[in-house]
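User: Design a sequence. Structure:
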């Protein structure tokens, strides 16, 4: 086929065949009828036919495409249908006279027509987000398809096609004339020239075979796995099948993924890795991959621009053009060298290390062993109370160190805490690719290797063979463009004698481009190759220690008992917190929306100072007498309703509930306890016995001791009785249980319940529920225990205690978690009479419960809560947050309800609002996507379908908005 023919094809509009005419074709030639719906296409005209039995696709093609080419498509489909392990493909449906391809004339124009089975499944193109699992699955599918086509041959494969990446350069030249914006045209043309220059030397080594050449989101169909992720398993539309470069096939797939990459080219790497695992690629093919991706991006944009000019009514092309421009912008956003290394690293191929043999000292007057290196990482002792966000903090710390030691430097390969952006949907560029040195002004700087010197705007570059040295803060002693010998002086550090100057040092293998000073953590593996360590110039200590998260996690698994679980399948190593934010070892800031332990927020300096002072003064057990235990006990009693003035101090909520149950038994002489289903009260023997949440213990409903009587959970959203008038139904269940206990004649110890249904996501109990239950329990001599461990202590905003919402007063209050802001501290507050009942069984003692440090911690937490008005903040920010969450119900069917108040909220996710089928797998996937977007969130409830929203009470409205914005991003884009 000639280039002229190819050019003519490129200018063809879609066949002019209406839906009615398409219906006539399938009726007359295939004996079928049904609803006709047009499908999108670049140059064909495609219609879906829905009959009563099944669905089909009618494909109408110009006669400019040879019948031999269509026969090759059909033959490939048949070939794949016979191959074990190949993707699903549609069947070719013959006409009533047995032909796979027919000629049809419509209004004096002849077309070639085929009918194919409609392959069921979901497409990928118009999804704004695909998880890594789906990206990898697409790469694996592309590999399986190519592997299955490796032995397929057909004379119709040897054809000229504008999408054939072997012809990308000439095709681009033909298409560019359609782009009227000269600046855009020049940019696209220069990009193609750069890509072709990198492809040409590799071209002779690239394997040729039959390739689909269009495995994109448009042309695959998918099923959903058990977590709701789309897994491509079928391929359609063989219109671009050719004998072409094998690696070009993968390049097409990778280019298609870039429109979902949110501007991050590394997004394609799971697809590359998965492809290579199925159908291994050569090193030459892998090096050619990214230039081919860029070439494909050019052809996509140029082709669509041309097609719009020819066929302005083509909504399919017009809709795709925005995506294709996004693909192009992402493809050209990074250097070719970076993606080449990233691709090689993704499949485990090592690149040659830079040789520094024979290099001369950069600073000949300074011994690298005398340089002190400043720790500016996440765990640096120099950082506290958010001071890392101060302007120029890194330089000020560096200058201070230099003033003390003479010469100080920052470390290469360090994740800088000062670079961490709060409330960011993407990781910040925290990884350091240079070193800053603070040293005496006037210090001599020499060339470590031979090269050509250039400098502009105080930026000096020494370009050697395959490596460049970039310096800032130098007064060069050379002419611009001067040739320099190794060891030759090139200048001096700026600054007067006796003063301190600053020198920035960076190595780079990039030619003709200035490298970045920092990169995002996920890009570090590639940038390390392009911007190698300056250790040869500044000594080995310039290299920051690498995080050993995987090794530490293996150590945890090896020695920490298995029942102690962690958040997330691949847990992050968190090493710092500040207010409502946590930071991992790579400097990524996460908004903490689930940590109800740190009620004040993380890293509160006033609390840290109080604990430190008391620890230095005294810490012992509570059998000694000291002021703090008396003062804290009085303080807690003053917070409780009148009459509850006896305080026990313990270490946790489990201990507090365990002690409360023991008090009830001791006071009443009975063990029988009434509790609620779906509840959690702790891990000790007694507190676990009254815990019935199957999310925390799958055997909870079958392993309760006979003294525990769990009654129907008063879940007004999904329980047996629903809505505001459900109180009587739930009370009836309680009364039946009480009557059964009465029959035993062994008395009733009491009733334990969270005042707000915390474990179910903060659901408020039905109006009047606790008052009625408390009345019946007390009438039988039992005591009423309010478990306020999760929901009390100001978290609800509108009330300090959860039981206040129900207008009741319990006999025993249990608290923990937030009262110590992470310090192990819990308490039981009760009446003097109930407390003294325990003396029948002996005295009570907790070694560290109520220690001087614990008491000071508790009092300081209360002081800060008062001074910083945190309960009021929980009310105001919580109300704002809840209103925004409630607004999601109107837009997203999966959002069933919003529970709770203040800063104890639950967002319940359901698959069906009528049946309330819990969206368990979706909730887990949503939490995972939120983590990627910088938000810490976990599911709760028996069905694990409720987002438990219980952040530190210092949460700002800005952070609350960021959380909802990210949640809405997930709900709108997918997970």
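Assistant: Done.
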């Amino acid at each position: 086929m000639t280039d002229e023919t190819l050019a003519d094809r490129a200018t063809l509009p879609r066949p002019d065949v209406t839906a009615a005419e398409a219906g006539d074709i399938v009726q007359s030639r295939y004996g079928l009828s049904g609803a006709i719906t047009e499908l999108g296409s670049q140059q064909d005209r495609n219609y879906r036919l829905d009959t009563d039995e099944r669905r089909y696709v009618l494909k109408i093609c110009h006669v400019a495409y040879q019948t031999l080419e269509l026969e090759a498509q059909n033959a490939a489909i048949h070939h794949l249908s016979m191959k074990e392990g190949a993707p699903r493909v549609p069947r070719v449906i013959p006409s009533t006279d047995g032909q796979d391809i027919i000629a049809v004339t419509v209004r004096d124009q002849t077309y070639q027509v085929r009918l194919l089975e409609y392959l069921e499944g979901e497409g990928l193109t118009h999804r704004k987000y695909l998880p890594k699992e789906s990206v990898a699955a697409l790469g694996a599918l592309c590999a399986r398809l190519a592997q299955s086509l490796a032995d397929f041959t057909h004379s119709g494969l040897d054809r000229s096609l504008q999408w054939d990446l072997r012809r990308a350069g000439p095709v681009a030249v033909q298409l560019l004339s359609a782009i009227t914006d000269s600046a855009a045209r020049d940019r696209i043309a220069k990009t193609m020239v750069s890509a072709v220059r990198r492809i040409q030397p590799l071209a002779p080594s690239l394997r040729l075979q039959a390739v689909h050449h269009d495995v994109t989101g448009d042309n695959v169909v998918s099923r959903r796995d058990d977590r709701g992720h789309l897994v491509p398993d079928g391929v359609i539309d063989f219109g671009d099948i050719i004998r072409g470069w094998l690696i070009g096939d993968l390049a097409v797939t990778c280019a298609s993924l870039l429109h979902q990459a949110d501007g991050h080219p590394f997004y394609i790497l799971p697809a590359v890795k998965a492809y290579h695992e199925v159908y291994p690629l050569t090193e030459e093919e892998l090096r050619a991959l990214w230039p081919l991706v860029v070439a494909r991006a050019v052809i996509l944009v140029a082709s669509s621009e041309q097609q719009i000019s020819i066929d302005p009514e083509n909504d399919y092309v017009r809709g795709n053009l925005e995506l294709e421009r996004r693909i192009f912008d992402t493809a050209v956003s990074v250097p070719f060298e970076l993606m080449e290394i990233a691709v090689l690293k993704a499949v485990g191929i090592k690149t040659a290390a830079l040789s520094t043999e024979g290099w001369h000292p950069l600073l000949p007057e300074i011994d690298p062993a005398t340089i002190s290196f400043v720790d500016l990482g996440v765990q640096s002792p120099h950082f506290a109370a958010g001071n890392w966000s101060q302007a120029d903090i890194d330089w000020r710390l560096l200058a201070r160190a230099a003033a003390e030691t003479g010469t100080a430097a920052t470390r290469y390969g360090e994740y800088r805490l000062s670079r961490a952006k709060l409330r960011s949907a993407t990781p910040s560029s925290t990884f350091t690719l240079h070193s800053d040195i603070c040293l005496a002004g006037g210090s001599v700087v020499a060339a470590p290797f031979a090269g050509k010197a250039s400098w502009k705007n105080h930026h000096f570059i020494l370009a050697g063979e395959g490596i460049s040295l970039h310096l800032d803060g130098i007064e060069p002693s050379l002419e611009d463009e001067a040739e320099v010998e190794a060891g030759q002086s090139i200048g001096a550090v700026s600054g007067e004698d006796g003063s301190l100057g600053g020198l920035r040092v960076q190595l780079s293998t990039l030619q003709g481009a200035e490298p970045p000073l920092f990169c995002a953590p996920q890009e570090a593996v590639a940038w390390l190759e392009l911007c190698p360590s300056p250790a040869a110039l500044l000594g080995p200590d310039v290299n920051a220690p690498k995080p050993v998260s995987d090794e530490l996690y293996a150590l945890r698994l090896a020695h920490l008992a298995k029942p102690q679980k962690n958040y997330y399948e691949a847990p992050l190593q968190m090493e710092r917190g500040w207010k409502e934010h946590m930071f991992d070892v790579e400097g990524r800031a996460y908004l903490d929306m689930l940590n109800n332990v740190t009620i004040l927020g993380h890293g509160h300096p006033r609390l840290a100072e109080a604990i430190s002072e008391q620890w230095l003064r005294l810490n012992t057990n509570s059998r000694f007498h000291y002021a703090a235990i008396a003062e804290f006990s009085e303080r807690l009693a003053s917070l409780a309703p009148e009459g509850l003035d006896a305080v026990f101090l313990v270490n946790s909520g489990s201990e507090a509930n365990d002690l409360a149950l023991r008090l009830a038994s001791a006071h009443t002489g009975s063990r029988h306890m009434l509790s609620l289903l779906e509840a959690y009260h702790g891990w000790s023997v007694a507190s676990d016995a009254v815990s019935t949440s199957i999310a925390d213990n799958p055997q909870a409903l079958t392993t309760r001791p006979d003294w525990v009587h769990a009654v129907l959970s008063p879940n007004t959203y999904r329980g047996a009785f629903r809505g505001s008038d459900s109180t009587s139904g739930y009370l009836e269940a309680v009364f039946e249980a009480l009557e059964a206990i009465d029959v035993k004649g062994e008395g009733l110890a009491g009733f334990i319940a969270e005042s707000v249904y915390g474990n179910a996501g903060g659901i408020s109990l039905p109006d009047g529920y606790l008052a009625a239950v408390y009345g019946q329990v007390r009438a039988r001599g039992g005591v009423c225990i309010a478990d306020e461990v999760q929901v009390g202590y100001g978290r609800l905003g509108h009330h300090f205690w959860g039981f206040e919402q129900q207008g009741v007063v319990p006999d025993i209050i249990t608290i923990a978690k937030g009262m110590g802001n992470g310090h192990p501290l819990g308490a039981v507050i009760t009446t003097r009479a109930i407390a003294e009942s325990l003396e029948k069984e002996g005295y009570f003692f907790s070694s560290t419960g109520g220690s001087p440090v614990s008491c000071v911690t508790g009092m300081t937490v209360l002081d800060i809560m008062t001074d910083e008005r945190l309960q009021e903040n929980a009310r105001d920010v919580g109300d704002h947050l809840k209103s925004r969450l409630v607004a999601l119900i109107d837009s997203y069917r999966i959002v069933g309800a919003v529970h709770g108040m203040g800063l104890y909220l639950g967002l319940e996710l359901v698959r069906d609002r009528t049946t309330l089928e819990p969206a368990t797998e979706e909730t887990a996937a949503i939490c995972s996507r939120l983590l990627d977007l910088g938000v810490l969130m976990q599911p709760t409830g028996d069905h694990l379908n409720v987002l438990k929203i219980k952040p530190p009470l210092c949460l700002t409205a800005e952070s609350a908005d960021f959380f909802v914005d990210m949640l809405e991003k997930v709900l709108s884009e997918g997970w």
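The chain has a mean pLDDT of 94. The longest helix spans residues 283-310.
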